[in-house]
Amino acid sequence: MDEAATCRRAAIEAIQDIYPDRLRDDLEARLESASMAPGxxxxxxxxxxxDAVDPTSxxxxxxxxxxxxxxxxxxxxxxxxxxxxDSDDHTQPxxxxxxxxxxxSRGFYLLARTDAASKAVATVRRFGRDxxxxxxxxxxxxxxxxTLERDVFELAATxxxxxxxxxxxxxxxxxxxDLAVAAGIGLDGAAxxxxxxxxxxxxxxxxxxxxxDDHVRQPATDS
Length: 223
What we know:
Blueprint: H1 3-13, H2 21-33, H3 37-49, H4 59-81, H5 91-111, H6 117-133, H7 141-163, H8 170-183, H9 190-193
C-alpha cells in the first residue's frame, strides 16, 4: 500500500466537515500538494516495531502529525513573509492564517487520545518560543526554523511507535533528528528518501511501552 496516499487520504478526510467551502477547498489543495513525510514516518515507525501492522490502523495518527506540521509550517511562512504588509487586500493572508489554525487544531483532535498528545503540545509550544527567539538580532534563524521539522519527526516517531504499544527510544529520536536536518525546511522530497521500517532504530518490540515517559525527549517546557 502507498503510505503517502494513505496519509493524504486520512488527512483530507479529517477536514471534510470544515466550512465554509472556500476554506475547506484551500485546505484540501494544500494537503494535495504537501510532502507527506511526517505521516509516512509515523506509519514506518509503527511498522518498524511490528511489521504486521496495517498502515490504515495508524492512518489517523499519521494524519494528526501531518496536519500539525502543515499548520505550523504555514504559520512560519506567514510570520516570515508578513503578507499583510504587501497589499491592502488582506483576504488571502487572513484565509491562510485561519487555515493554519484549523490544521493545527484538527491535528490535535486526532492525537488527543493517544500517547503522542503531550508531545504534540510540547512541539507547538517550542515552535512559538523559537519563532519569537528568531527575531533577536543575533539569532540563528536557520537553526531555529529547522527545529520545527526535527520536533515534528520526533512527534511522528512517538505517534507511530506508541501506536503498537512500544516506547520511543533516544536512538530513534537521534535518527529522526538527523533525517529532519538532512531534509531541511519544508521537507520537500523527504517522503521519498525516508528509510524503510527495517532501517529505523526503534530498539523496541510491540507491547514494551512500560515507562515510555522516561525515554521520550520532550521539548523544554514553559518556565
